[in-house]
Amino acid sequence: xxxxxxxxxxxxxxxxxxxxxxxxxxxxxxxxxxxxxxxxxxxxxxxxxxxxxxxxxxxxxxxxxxxxxxxxxxxxxxxxxxxxxxxxxxxxxxxxxxxxxxxxxxxxxxxxxxxxxxxxxxxxxxxxxxxxxxxxxxxxxxxxxxxxxxxxxxxxxxxxxxxxxxxxxxxxxxxxxxxxxxxxxxxxxxxxxxxxxxxxxxxxxxxxxxxxxxxxxxxxxxxxxxxxxxxxxxxxxxxxxxxxxxxxxxxxxxxxxxxxxxxxxxxxxxxxxxxxxxxxxxxxxxxxxxxxxxxxxxxxxxxxxxxxxxxxxxxxxxxxxxxxxxxxxxxxxxxxxxxxxxxxxxxxxxxxxxxxxxxxxxxxxxxxxxxxxxxxxxxxxxxxxxxxxxxxxxxxxxxxxxxxxxxxxxxxxxxxxxxxxxxxxxxxxxxxxxxxxxxxxxxxxxxxxxxxxxxxxxx
Length: 459
Fold this sequence. Notes:
Blueprint: H1 3-27, H2 34-47, E1 50-51, E2 54-55, E3 63-66, H3 67-91, H4 95-101, H5 105-111, E4 123-131, E5 134-141, H6 150-158, H7 162-170, E6 173-174, H8 178-193, E7 202-205, H9 213-225, E8 230-233, E9 239-240, E10 245-247, E11 250-252, E12 254-257, H10 261-267, H11 273-279, E13 284-286, H12 291-295, H13 299-304, H14 314-323, E14 327-329, E15 334-337, E16 340-343, H15 344-350, E17 355-359, E18 369-370, H16 376-388, E19 391-395, E20 401-407, E21 411-425, E22 428-437, E23 449-451, E24 453-456
Parallel strand pairs: 3-24, 7-8, 7-12, 12-13
Antiparallel strand pairs: 1-2, 4-5, 4-21, 6-24, 9-10, 10-11, 14-19, 15-16, 17-18, 17-19, 20-21, 21-22, 22-23
């Protein structure tokens, strides 16, 4: 084995012992009493670490990963994001491929409007699960990824704790700053779009009262601290005079779009101020309507189906095989499954215990059917639903549970599934959303939690 590989293996073997020692220190710390837990909860509410009204971090340490692990995930994520960008570019001129991805007629119409900058996704997130065999990406949050502002807030909660202060003082480490990369990416897109304001004014746009609203205030305050005036606006508050989009007297240069595209299109017609300003190229919209195509879960069917391999390089194909699970559109007909050709619907019935059904375009776990948690009758009903609506079927990823110290009225260790979801800015990774749950459906909407990320250097 080459010397570098030996050194990497030795350093990665060190991380479990560091984590074990840290967890034992947390479990045996007599200072963790109810008033401390109350303070941690209150701090989360103050810092906006809530989903709706629920605090999201009942954990007492960050997720630790080695620098080599982080770099491997980052390289893979960047390659996948770049490949998806090419898929969308081709789909815009190839109606057959566009039909596979499944945008609605209006989504496709909006996607064909040039956003004014070259990169498909200014800000995006790839969601991956960690397993004993490494990691696999299951979904691409291409249009409006949440959680970018959480790392800096989670650090304020966790890193002042005595056990973590000691770890940070003793061990070389790196803390990602996705919130900084987000602002830079927004401004870079604005410059490429043609914007000339020295300090462009930003509007964070989503419906009032959404569960992720607390993050908008965190990002607004950060942008303002960097001298970028920022407001939070409901789409219904926007006005357009034919030259400028605004809310009241506030002229908007950049719309940081957090509203979900299909929800916007369901509620607003082509004469909405945001739609008009975008079509006229009078607003820099990030992310653009074009990202809806990449957001469709069927993009993973393209990445994982040998029928489309001519679109990719041998290196990319190897990466897809290793890091993307088998995924197909749900439709009647035949398909390939691990080097054999089979009837897809019959395959879905036969392989229930290793398959999951997902809506082609939804979020928060809505409409997901997990085969290995379903009865035969429940799975049959799920298949019928998937045949009537746009769905994909995806092969199960073997997840592993990891012990994590957490608190309620006391400290305890809980076996948790962990997903590692790297943020990308112009297809380059900075940090990740770390979600944890006792359920195999890992998302905050379904009751999961989150913690910070800490990259251990020299490992």
